[in-house]
Structure formats: structure tokens, C-alpha cells
Specification:
mainly alpha, homodimer, MarR family winged helix-turn-helix transcriptional regulator (chains A, B), about 70% helix, about 150 residues, DNA-binding, two-stranded antiparallel sheet, Arc Repressor Mutant, subunit A
DNA sequence: CGCTTCGGTTGACAAAAGCAACAATTTACA
DNA sequence: TGTAAATTGTTGCTTTTGTCAACCGAAGCG
């Protein structure tokens, strides 16, 4: 049955992620913080609410994490002029630099796992990943927005 | 660069997993507990240490989680006769039943995400997943054992 | 206007996870 | 053999992470 096979992959890839995410052990940022920095940089000027929807977080919790990131000088908030309730989030220059370091470190961990694989196998791997993204993307977005 | 593409997939699939794992919200077991039940059933008579290595858990933490699972009558421990430090872990009949329910529920969530996809696309999806497992399996095992 | 919704903050609390000290075995090896 | 070192697991304590509900000010809307 297909569901079984997908769950098998899920169990497998959960452990792959565990290994590849170990880079955060070396960092002063947690995995969540890293993901937030990444997303804030990708979606410049996004609101806390955007992040809540994207990552499915509790708003109280996120509020605190953002406060911490701000106190660490990685993120800055500007109140939106159109809607004074909303906050627009940006990385500071420091934050951008931190993120670049994190990305480099993350790449490093990923490569340590992958660069022993022959070139052609790596290509197959990437193709397979892109295939999965292609097929599942619409459902992720769909589920997220409700 | 390949690492970037893999990290993109990782970010993507992290969110897929978040959605597909929501089944645990409906359960009296947490995600970790579910994974433990699954692994104890798969690897009957395994020790706490086996689980620590497999899931990379703190041993103190695992000890408590197992105690809880035992108090819930899902897991039973037998002291190993060869090595009196070691404990052999098994599911109880209740635990096996709970696990079966969890698996059914999990399948349900996975299907809810996947069954809108045309049959042939589903097949491509599974093929891609199997491809990834094939390519990465040895590295997961390798990393885990050290 | 007054009511409701929305975006975000705060306090209090619960759950999850990590750390270090410890006990009981087992293993290694002098 | 005996004893130090390593292994397996437990416990107390702390920190981190996450949840819940009450709340505030702003915006939408009849």
C-alpha cells in the first residue's frame, strides 16, 4: 500500500534530517531560530503572523523567540505604516552575516554526508528530491493555508 | 550547488513531515513515543541503549519515557539473562494494539495528503522516495553507529 | 459609534529535553 | 585473580521549549 511506503520514507528521512541538522549544535541559534532567520531573509518584511502560518507556531511562543532574536541583534522590527498592529520583520546586517555563516555550516554538514557518493548518484538523488517537491508542493501549500 | 538543493528539499520535507505527523495530536502518545513503540515492535527485545543510538536520545530522558510507556501498559521490560545490566523491551498486547491503531491513523493522514494525486504521480513519488533511501541508507547507518 | 476581528504581547504553566551524579554489572588487562 | 575502566540504566535537578488564556491597541464593519 502506498501509505506504508511513504511512512517508511518518512521514518527514514526523519533520521536523515536529524543528522543533517546537527550543524545547529555548533551555533548559538537553535534550529527554529535558524529557520526563522532564513524565512525572514527570504520573505523580507514579513509579519509574525506570516511566520506563524508558515511554521505553525503558537503566537505567544513566536513573540518571545522574535524578542530574543531582536535582543541578539539579528532581527529588527518596523511597525507597518498601513496597519499599525502589524510588524515588519527584517534581518539586521549582523543577522544577515549570522545567517550566511549558518548556511555555510549547514552546507558543510550536508556535504559531509553526500560527497562520498559518486557524482552520478548525487544527480539521481537531486532529481528524486525535485520530483518529490514537484508532486507534493501544491498539497503542502494547500494544507498550510487553512 | 548540490548541497543547496538538498537543503531546499530538507526545508520542504520538514514541513511535509509536520503535516503528516499531525496524527499524533489525536493520540495519547507523543510522536517520540509512537516512534519508540514502532521501533520496539520492529526490533523485539531491543535494549534502551539500542533506542538511544537509533534515535540519538539522552539516556536519562529515554529512561523516563520508557517508564511512562510501561506505566501505560504499552511496554514491558525483561532483564536480560546474559547481561544483567541490560533490559529487553517488548510491546505488551495492549501496546501492540495501540500501535496498530496509531499506524492506521498515520496511514489515514498520509492518504489524506496523497490520495488526491493521480495514480501515476503517486507511483513516481514512491519511486523517488525509494531512490533516495537507496542512495542514502548506507550513510545514515554509518553516521549513526559512531 | 459600538462590536468583532486581528496582530501581537505577557504571565503562568506544562511538557520535553539535557546534564551530572550514581549504582550495578561487565569487561579488560596487569 | 583482582581491580580499574567501561557499559547500561536510573534518578534528581535544571533548562529549554511549547501551550493556554487573558489582555491591549488597532482595524474592519454594521
Amino acid at each position: 500500500m502506498n501509505a506504508e511506503k511513504i511512512r517508511k520514507f518518512n521514518r527514514f528521512y526523519t533520521r536523515v534530517l536529524g543528522l543533517m541538522n546537527q550543524y545547529t549544535d555548533k551555533s548559538k541559534f537553535t534550529l527554529l531560530e535558524t529557520q526563522l532567520l532564513y524565512e525572514i531573509n527570504r520573505n523580507k518584511g514579513c509579519s509574525a503572523n506570516d511566520l506563524i502560518n508558515f511554521f505553525q507556531l503558537d503566537k505567544g511562543y513566536l513573540s518571545r523567540v522574535l524578542k530574543k532574536l531582536e535582543s541578539q541583534n539579528a532581527v529588527i522590527r518596523h511597525y507597518s505604516s498601513e496597519d499599525k498592529r502589524k510588524i515588519k520583520l527584517y534581518l539586521t546586517n549582523d543577522g544577515k552575516k549570522e545567517l550566511d555563516d549558518l548556511i555555510a555550516l549547514s552546507n558543510c554538514y550536508v556535504l559531509s554526508m553526500v560527497d562520498q557518493i559518486p557524482e552520478e548518484e548525487q544527480l539521481k538523488l537531486i532529481k528524486a528530491m525535485e520530483q518529490i517537491e514537484l508532486i507534493l508542493t501544491e498539497f503542502v501549500d494547500q494544507k498550510r493555508n487553512k
